[in-house]
Amino acid sequence: MVIVYESKTGFTKKYAEMLANKTGWKLYFVRELPKNMEEDILFLGWIKAGSIQGLKKLRKDKVKAVCATGTARKAEPSEEAVIARNKLEGIPFFYLRGGCLPLKELKGMDKFLLSMFLKMLKGRKDKDEELKEAIHHIEYGFNGVSEEHLQPVMEWIAARK
Ligand SMILES: Cc1cc2nc3c(=O)[nH]c(=O)nc-3n(C[C@H](O)[C@H](O)[C@H](O)COP(=O)(O)O)c2cc1C
Question: Which CATH number does the domain housing residue 80 bear?
Answer without folding.
Answer: 3.40.50.360
